[in-house]
Amino acid sequence: MTLALIVFILFPSPKVATLDAHRMAESIRMVENSGWRQRGRDGEWGAFQIMPNVWQRHSRARQWNAPEWEQRRVALAHLADLRAGLRRNGMPESPYLLGLCWNAGLDAAVRHSAPARAKDYAIRCQNIYEDQP
After folding, report:
1. Domain carrying residue 102
2. How far is it, in rounded angstroms, from Cα 89 to Cα 83?
3. Which residues does 98 contact at the CB level (< 8 Å), separation at least 6?
């Protein structure tokens, strides 16, 4: 399992030559599968289950009352931050790694210390991303 994960990270899917941020955001939204006003147990909010500290970095709007377009805009801004973090650490911007970062955080992805549930989340993000037209 570990060897397969290492091979996957080093050699991401050939389908992902240039990552489409909108498609990636939609994949995350589909995995989260919550309503636009859904609140998670750790304070995450909305269709993308964005944590309050992430929201505050990217928006001045009230998170609990934000329209769909603002939630998507914040999600895309956060994805851009995660992509930059992966690049800084010499890692590919794959749907798997972005899903892992979204769920477990950039540090956990870079240090290979994400829990199994986050890896499962990342696999679901990748599968949805690759299945979208």
Report:
1. 21-131
2. 10
3. 19, 24, 28, 79, 82, 83, 86, 122, 125
In residues, how long is the chain? Answer: 133
Residue 8 placed within a domain: no
Does any domain span residue 69?
Answer: yes
What is the DSSP secondary structure assignment for residue 43, as one 8-state letter? S
Give how many domains the chain has, as a whole number. Answer: 1
Q: Identify the band that residue 97 occupies on the pLDDT scale cut at 50, 70 and 90.
A: very high
Most confident of 4-8, 25-29, 42-46: 25-29
Q: Helices (H) and strands (E) in the chain — how many of each?
A: 7, 0
Q: pTM of the full predicted structure?
A: 0.81
Q: Is residue 9 part of a domain?
A: no
CATH number for the domain harbouring residue 37: 1.10.530.10
CB 102 within 8 A of CB 76: no
End-to-end Cα separation, the chain, in angstroms: 29
Residues 13-22 have pLDDT tens digits of 544 458 999 9
**Mean pLDDT on 78-104:** 97
